Amino acid sequence: MPKKRTLPYILLGLIHSNHQLSGYQMMQEFKHEISDFWTASHSQIYPELQRMTDDDWIAPVTSPFNVDTKRNQTFYQLTATGEQVLEDWLREPLTTTNDDLFPLKLFFIDDQQSDLLKPLIAQQLQLSTDRRDYLLGRMATVFPTEAEIQAHYGHYLTLTRGIERESSYVKWLVDLAISLNDIDDSN
C-alpha cells in the first residue's frame, strides 16, 4: 500500500498556525522552521497547493496590487474542510510505520492545554519504549560475550548508539509527560 502523502498536512498546519500564507512564505517556513525535520521544494509545494484548493481544503485569497512587487499575491487560508482534515490528521494515532510524523504533529500543536498533546506524547513514548526494549533484546542476543562484540565491533557500536538514542528519547518523553501532568495538577 502506498505511503500517505505528508506534505498537504504540513501545509495545512503552516497555514493554520499563520492564518494565511502565500506560497513564497510557505517556502520560507520550510527553509527556516520545518527544515530540521522535513523538506519540500518549490516544485512540490505549488502543485500540492493546487490539489488542496481543488479538494476545498484551502481557499486562495488574492491581495491587492503591490507596488513593490508589481503584482498581486495569492495567499491561502484554510476552509472548514481543511480545518477538519488537519484536526483528523493530528488525531490519527502514531504507529511503527508513521511515528516519523511525531515531530511534525507536535510542531503544529499551538496550545499547551491542547487535548491532542498528551495522547500524542503517550503514543510516541510507547513506540520509543518498545523500540528501545527491542534493541536491548537484540544486544543481549547478538552480543552476549566480549568475543561476539570484538568479532562484529561496528555492528555493536551501531546498536549501542541506537539504544542510547532511544533511551534518551524515552527519557525526554517521560519528562515531558510528567511536566504536562504537573501543569494539569496546578490548574
Query: Which shape, going by the Cα principal axes?
Result: elongated
**Largest sheet data:** 3 strands, antiparallel
Q: What is the alpha-carbon Rg in Å?
A: 21 Å
Give the strand tally. 3
Which consecutive residue ranges, at least 5 long each, have pLDDT under 50? none
| β-strand amount | 5-15%
CATH class of the largest domain: Mainly Alpha
Secondary structure: helix percent = 55-70%
- Supply the number of helical segments: 8
Counting structural domains, the number is 2
Query: Which structural class matches the secondary elements?
Result: mainly alpha
CATH superfamily of the largest domain: Winged helix-like DNA-binding domain superfamily/Winged helix DNA-binding domain
pLDDT averaged residue by residue:
89
Order of helices and strands: HEHHEEHHHHH
How far apart the termini lie comes to 45 Å
Q: If you consult CATH, what is the topology of the largest domain?
A: Arc Repressor Mutant, subunit A
Domain Transcription regulator PadR C-terminal: 102-173
Domain Transcription regulator PadR N-terminal: 11-87
InterPro entries: Tscrpt_reg_PadR_C, Tscrpt_reg_PadR_N, WH-like_DNA-bd_sf, WH_DNA-bd_sf
Protein name: PadR family transcriptional regulator
